[in-house]
Amino acid sequence: MVINTNTTAQKSASLLMESSSMLSKSLARLSSGSKIVSPEDDAAGLAVSIRFEAQISRTNAAKNNVSNAISYSQTQDGFLQKVGKALDRMSELSVLSQDVTKTDSDRSLYNSEFSNLGGYINDLATKDFNGISLFSGTTRGVTTDGDGNTFSMAGINLGASAYTTATAAGIATTGAAVTALSSVKSAITQLTTDRATLGANVARLTHTSEQLSVLRDNLSSANSRIVDVDVADESTKFARFNILVQAGTAMLAQANSTPQGALRLIQ
After folding, report:
1. Are residues 65 and 85 in the same domain?
2. Which residues have a Cβ under 8 Å from the Cβ of 25 and sit 6 or more positions away?
3. Which residue has the higher pLDDT, 104 or 261?
4. The model's pTM
5. Which among 49, 156, 192, 241 is least buried, having the fewest CB atoms inside 10 angstroms?
6. Contact call for residues 163 and 121 (beta carbons, < 8 A)
């Protein structure tokens, strides 16, 4: 029996320290909800998770860009619906002005409304969306994924000759009304093309937005399997380590009391 070196107590202390460390890690996982509370827990898993999180952030950013582009296109279409109603009325006025029972005085009244509607269309051509022109005809590249790839969204130009020719026309005379009707019909044809273009843009962007949502969900699920703690499993481990710590503490106390038996030999 020795006094200076209590190997039993040293071994018990070592095991207690190990159990205490595991208990602390388990507690940290449960409190944080993450399996990886420090790099040494899963170095490779942490590296993959960091890349996943960065890709998820980029995907969210791309989805926001696409959503804003959809709003931009929908705003364009809202204005074009009003342009369509204005052109419908202008074509109607062009036909009314050709009525042989109307005098030039009557036609001047029609012409006043016709000109006002043309001015309304010209005014819409200057509208913008967050400082970006809606109808400049510029093709804009919309970011469609986290790698920076883009979709070329065709622009709409209300300053196109088909529109400006119609809005600059007049119906003060029968002959002018005939010419104006032809111009307005051309503008209506251009309008149908522009609205179809917008519809194609929105359809394409909507599919992209849905695809980005699916990608984000799948990436989040994959990242979750790497970093998120299984609470049921970890709770079981926590209970096990907690019992080991309590048992180890008791056994260390017992091991430390063993050398006291040497006193009885001395006595």
Report:
1. yes
2. 37, 41
3. 104
4. 0.79
5. 192
6. yes
